[in-house]
Amino acid sequence: FLLLIFAGIFCSDVNDDISLTENVGRAYQSMSEIPEPVELKTEIIGTVPKWLFGSLYRNGPGKFEYGNDTFEHLFDPSAMIQRLHFEDGRVFYQRKLIKSTHTLLNMKEKRIVLTEMGTWTEPENTDEIHAEDISKERCKHLLNSFPTDNTVVSVFPIHGWIVAFTESPIITLNDRITLETEHILDIRNAPAFPEGLALTTVVAHGVTDKNGDFWTFATGVWTEQFAFIPKVVYLAVKIANASKLDKSSPEEILENISFSDFLFNSNVRDFKMRYFHSFVQASEDFLILPFTSVEIQPDAILNSCKNGQPPIEMMNFNKNADGFYRIFDKKTMKWLLKEFISETTFQMHPIQGFYDHESEEFVLDTLEIMNHDMIQEKVFSSMISKFSIVKKGRITM
C-alpha cells in the first residue's frame, strides 16, 4: 500500500491527481524539491488509523539534467530522498535532493561535471589540451570522479540517520526530519579497514538483522605486503549497532564498521571481478551472495577512459561464465567452503531466502534474466526500445 502511494507521488506533482497508470514517463523526469512536509489531500475510503505513526523513506533519481547536459544511465541522475510521514490519521510528504559533492558541483557549474557510472563527461578545457595528452587527462578526470558520492540507490536507518547508499564505498548521512545531508562518509576511513585493500564496489542493498547490525558486501583488489601481484577479493561489511536511534557522530559510525575474511577468485590470477547487485539473509546466521555472469574488468578502465567511455564499459556479460552462490557465516565472519554452481545468469534482486529444516537445504527465490545484462539495459536509450523478460526462479543449496 505504501509503495503504491510512493509510485503515484513519484509520477505526479503533489497537487495533481495521483495516477498509477498514466504519465509513467514522468518517473524519468526531474522533480523539484519539497523541503517542508505538505499534507496529502486526496480522497480516502475509510480512515487512516490514528495509531499509525512513523515515516517511510525512499530514494532514487531526482534530477536528470543540468543545463544542456543529460544523464545517460538510470543509476546516474542526482539522488533525491522522499519521505511519507504518518501522524494522527494524516499523511505528509516531502522530498529533497541529497547534497553530494557531485550534485553541488553540477548545480554550481550548471552542467554535469563529473563522470558517473554510465555517463561520460570530458575534462575541462579539452580544446586547450594537446591531442597526445587527451587520453591521460581523461583518465585523470575519471579518477577525480570516482568513487561517486551520488547515493542514488537505497536508504536505511542507521545510527540515528537516514543513510543513503550507491555502489561505492561512500555513503551520505541525512537527517530523519529535514532530509538535509549533513555528512559524507567514506567507509575506507574505518579504523578496521584492511591494509592493502582498494575497494571497487559496495552492494547498496544491504540488510539489518535482529541484532540491529547492518550487513553488506564489497568487491576490491588486495595487494598483500611484499607481494607484487594483486588479487581480486570479496568481503562482508558490518555496521554494528545500526538500529541505534540517537544520532552517532561520523567517527562513531566508522568505529562500528568491521570487515570479514577475504574470499578470492578460485583462480587467484584471474583479475576479473564478478558483479552482484544484492544478496539475501537466509537465516539469522547465514547470508547468501549470488555471483552473476557479469564480469568487471578493472584493467579495461585504462582503455575505456582513454577513449572517453564511462565505467559501465568495464562490465561485460560473459555468456560462457556460470553463475555461482556462496554462503557467508555471520558469527565467524568467514565464508563456507562449498560453492554452488548455476547456469549463466544475471540477477538484480532476490525475493526471499530461508533454511528448510526438513530438507536441510537453503532455499533462495529470485528474479533473474538468462543470457543478458540488465545493467546495460538501464541506459536510457536502451530502455526506450527494449527490456528483457525477468523470470522467477528457485534455487536450493
Automatic annotation (TrEMBL):
<dbReference type="GO" id="GO:0003834">
    <property type="term" value="F:beta-carotene 15,15'-dioxygenase activity"/>
</dbReference>
<keyword id="KW-0408">Iron</keyword>
<comment type="similarity">
    <text>Belongs to the carotenoid oxygenase family.</text>
</comment>
<protein>
    <submittedName>
        <fullName>Ccod</fullName>
    </submittedName>
</protein>
<dbReference type="InterPro" id="IPR004294">
    <property type="entry name" value="Carotenoid_Oase"/>
</dbReference>
<keyword id="KW-0560">Oxidoreductase</keyword>
<dbReference type="Pfam" id="PF03055">
    <property type="entry name" value="RPE65"/>
</dbReference>
<dbReference type="GO" id="GO:0010436">
    <property type="term" value="F:carotenoid dioxygenase activity"/>
</dbReference>
<keyword id="KW-0479">Metal-binding</keyword>
<dbReference type="GO" id="GO:0016121">
    <property type="term" value="P:carotene catabolic process"/>
</dbReference>
<dbReference type="GO" id="GO:0042574">
    <property type="term" value="P:retinal metabolic process"/>
</dbReference>
<feature type="binding site">
    <location>
        <position position="205"/>
    </location>
    <ligand>
        <name>Fe cation</name>
    </ligand>
</feature>
<feature type="binding site">
    <location>
        <position position="277"/>
    </location>
    <ligand>
        <name>Fe cation</name>
    </ligand>
</feature>
<feature type="binding site">
    <location>
        <position position="349"/>
    </location>
    <ligand>
        <name>Fe cation</name>
    </ligand>
</feature>
<dbReference type="GO" id="GO:0046872">
    <property type="term" value="F:metal ion binding"/>
</dbReference>
